[in-house]
């Protein structure tokens, strides 16, 4: 019998396991694939560092950045200086660190894929590709296409997902972080240099507008970095909730909760998910320790719900081309009259 089963070993699941183990609850993580290199830039925001100071002390190679080049849909460019450093990690190494930390504190990792989840009275039956397990509590941290979410409530629909794709390349170590807003869709291209490689990708907040996505990215690369060699390519779905009403359905019950991407907790404008993943992991662990897991839904909404809901409501306006042009133009004007302009 497993007391606390966590499906998924990404940042949400691994950090939840770590927090539980620190309080003498020793969970079991089920994940056959983590750690793995994720198709994203690996940015860790200043706010995430403030709320989780351990991120500044992680003993793995990373980069620190304090400026970002923004390019408007029409091509106007400006340099934004940041008030605080942003950290850039390889997601393979960051996720590995979080899993290792959880295991060191007493959590167990079972490298098996959960293929079925069923309620059996007051317990849960987890079937993997190898065995069947019984658990008292289940935490679903298994990503945008969460099996746990599908079996417990309902899956995220196609309209509540975005799409991103891109490449890892090895030749751009001295490149600055660049964000170029797309003139063709609600989304952007990014160039993010990391410690050992550079992530170049493109995202769209709506799968329905993804036609030509790869072509747009390849054209950008050909125009700006014609001689790079692509080490690997990838594509992935990400949560991008379009209506806050979806969160009217609770993400927790007496013996279950959905956290991180499985809960749909990703900023719909920036695509940031690590902050919400860590917050969810901490809050779910706290709820379990207090024997009040059904309170997790209330806890996350009180902690950051207003920020997420506001981003959801403003997403469609933020990504209008006139708004983006005005935004980038105003930043360029401010940086002209105040060379030390920072955000």
Provide a concise account of the structure shown.
It contains 8 helices and 16 strands. By secondary structure, it is α/β, with parallel strands linked by helices. It has a single domain (2-321), classed as FAD/NAD(P)-binding domain (3-Layer(bba) Sandwich).
Q: Mind telling me the CATH superfamily name?
A: FAD/NAD(P)-binding domain
Order of helices and strands: EHEEHEEHEEEEHEEEEHEEEHHH
Shape: globular
What is the terminal-to-terminal distance? Answer: 50 Å
Strand content: 25-35%
> What would CATH call the class?
Alpha Beta
Uncertain residue segments: 337-343
Kindly state the number of beta strands: 16
Contiguous helical run count = 8
Sheet with most strands: 8 strands, mixed
Estimate the mean pLDDT confidence.
Answer: 92
Helix content bin: 25-40%
Structure description:
The protein has helices spanning 11-22, 46-51, 91-104, 147-152, 213-224, 274-289, 296-318, 321-337, and strands at 2-7, 28-30, 43-44, 63-71, 77-88, 108-110, 114-120, 123-128, 132-140, 161-169, 177-181, 187-193, 198-204, 230-239, 252-253, 256-258. It contains eight helices and 16 strands. The strands form two sheets. Strands 1, 2, 6, 7, 8, 9, 15 and 16 form an eight-stranded mixed beta sheet that branches. An eight-stranded mixed beta sheet has the order 3-5-4-11-12-13-10-14. The protein has 343 residues and is of the alpha/beta class. Helices cover 31% and strands 29% of the residues. Residues 337-343 have low confidence and may be disordered. The protein starts with a strand and ends in a 6-residue tail after the last helix. It has a single domain, classed as FAD/NAD(P)-binding domain (3-Layer(bba) Sandwich), CATH 3.50.50. The protein is globular and about 60 Å long.
């Amino acid at each position: 019998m497993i007391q606390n089963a966590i499906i998924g070993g990404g940042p949400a699941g691994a950090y939840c396991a770590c927090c539980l183990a620190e309080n003498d609850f020793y969970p079991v993580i089920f994940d056959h694939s983590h750690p793995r290199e994720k198709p994203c830039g690996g940015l860790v925001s200043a706010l995430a560092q403030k709320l989780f100071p351990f991120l500044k002390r992680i003993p793995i190679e990373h980069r620190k950045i304090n400026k970002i080049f923004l390019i408007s849909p029409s091509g106007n460019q400006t340099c934004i200086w940041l008030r605080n450093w942003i950290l850039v990690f390889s997601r393979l190494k960051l996720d590995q660190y979080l899993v290792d930390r959880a295991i060191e504190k007493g959590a167990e990792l079972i490298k098996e894929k959960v293929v079925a989840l069923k309620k059996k009275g007051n317990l849960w039956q987890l079937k993997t590709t190898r065995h069947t397990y019984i658990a008292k509590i289940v935490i679903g941290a298994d990503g945008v296409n969460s099996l746990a979410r599908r079996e417990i409530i309902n899956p995220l629909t196609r309209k509540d997902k975005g799409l991103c794709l891109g490449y890892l390349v090895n030749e751009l170590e001295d490149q600055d972080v660049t964000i170029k807003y797309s003139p063709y869709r609600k989304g952007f291209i990014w160039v993010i240099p990391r410690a050992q490689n550079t992530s170049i990708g493109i995202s769209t907040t709506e799968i329905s507008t993804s036609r030509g996505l790869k072509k747009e990215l390849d054209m950008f690369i050909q125009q700006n970095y014609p001689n790079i060699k692509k080490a690997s390519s990838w594509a992935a779905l990400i949560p991008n909730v379009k209506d806050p009403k979806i969160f009217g359905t609770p993400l927790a019950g007496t013996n279950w909760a959905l956290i991180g991407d499985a809960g749909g907790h990703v900023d719909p404008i920036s695509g940031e998910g690590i902050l919400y993943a860590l917050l969810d992991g901490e809050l779910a662990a706290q709820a379990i320790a207090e024997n009040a897991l059904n309170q997790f839904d209330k806890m996350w909404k009180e902690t950051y719900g207003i920020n997420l809901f506001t981003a959801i409501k403003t997403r469609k306006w933020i990504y209008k081309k006139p708004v983006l042009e005005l935004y980038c133009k105003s930043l360029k004007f401010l940086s002209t009259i105040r060379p030390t302009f920072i955000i």
